[in-house]
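Something for you to look into today, if you have time. Just paste the record in under my message, thanks.
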Amino acid sequence: MHRAYKFLLRPTARQAAALGDMLRDHCSLYNGALQERRDAYRHTSKTTVQYGQQSAQLKEIRAFDLDRQGRWSFSSQQATLRRLDRAFAAFFRRIKAGGKPGYPRFRGGGRFDTVDFPKDGDGCRWDSTPHDPVTRVRFQGVGHVRVHQYRPVVGKVKTVSVKREGQRWYVVLTAERASSEPLPATGRVVGIDMGIASFLTTSDGEHVVNPRHGRKAATQLVAAQQAMSRCERGSKRRRKAVAKVATLHRKVRRQRLDHAHKTALDLVREHDFIAHEDLKIRNMRAAPAPKPNADRPDTFLPNGAAAKAGLNQSIADAGWGVFLAILNAKAESAGRELMAVDPRNTSRRCLECGHIAKENRPTQEKFHCVECGHQAHADVVGARNVLRAGLVRRDAKRA
């Protein structure tokens, strides 16, 4: 199995400048390759340029521009060209699927923040000074950069990436290990129901509070974005304002990740089997369809778009998708079984008689069966129905 590690880099001023130059030159290579593909399609009878053709030109490009392109790792430049090739592959795939095409765009200096090294030892070297008590990673053209390594890397390092986030630099490693060490069995099972009022509710009746990090930081974000909009483009004040906005967004993202990691870890440590709803988050956040007014063709009827926008913002702030991805990774690493079940009617099905009706849930929190009169918390009912469905799927899968 593979596991990713992300550590903070502590470069010197000269190394930070070199890392910035590396990003700039790889961004220039990406944009140049994109321009070549555009020109070939437009002016050469719709000819498509492939990755192999562009990779074969790298030697000439590096020889022509020794001070810039020739300074960096050949493998990392190939990875940048593969990145563009994947963007075009995704573009054509979306066209065939009938979705929004999303043609690959040129990247500005502030929108190209990652350089990949496909193999440890080729243009980069993790823990390049093993006898030094301080961990360092070496990048070609930059040197040995100090790493704030707060936990050991288990397994063999396969790929290395350098990433810029605001004014900070990080190294991202992918390590391969033969097998994971499962946690001891607990004999407990649980179902979870994701929500907005509570981040999640377990089948045991436990409610995990929704921290709402985005809503708490909304006032500061609005003030920072308004201050940024008043600054002149290209000015020093605007660069500082942009950095402040990015810092606030980064803090919210890290808080959300921290909460997701801790919540998922608690579930994995305490339960052998975890069932959750198979949520289609992208569909849940879709905007409501407009309602044309038959009496006045140029106008539309109210469709609840404002209320739906608030719900979509709350769903995004909760970070369900990030949490479920983290839960899946931790469950696999710990040897736990994770099961996704159909979320339909989980909060409308009575636990006692099995009756399904919209009227069974008169409010957000209350469940009152109109058939048998059973009453409970709606989220707890949903979590227990999720657990039942998960256990049925597990037994059927084993059979």
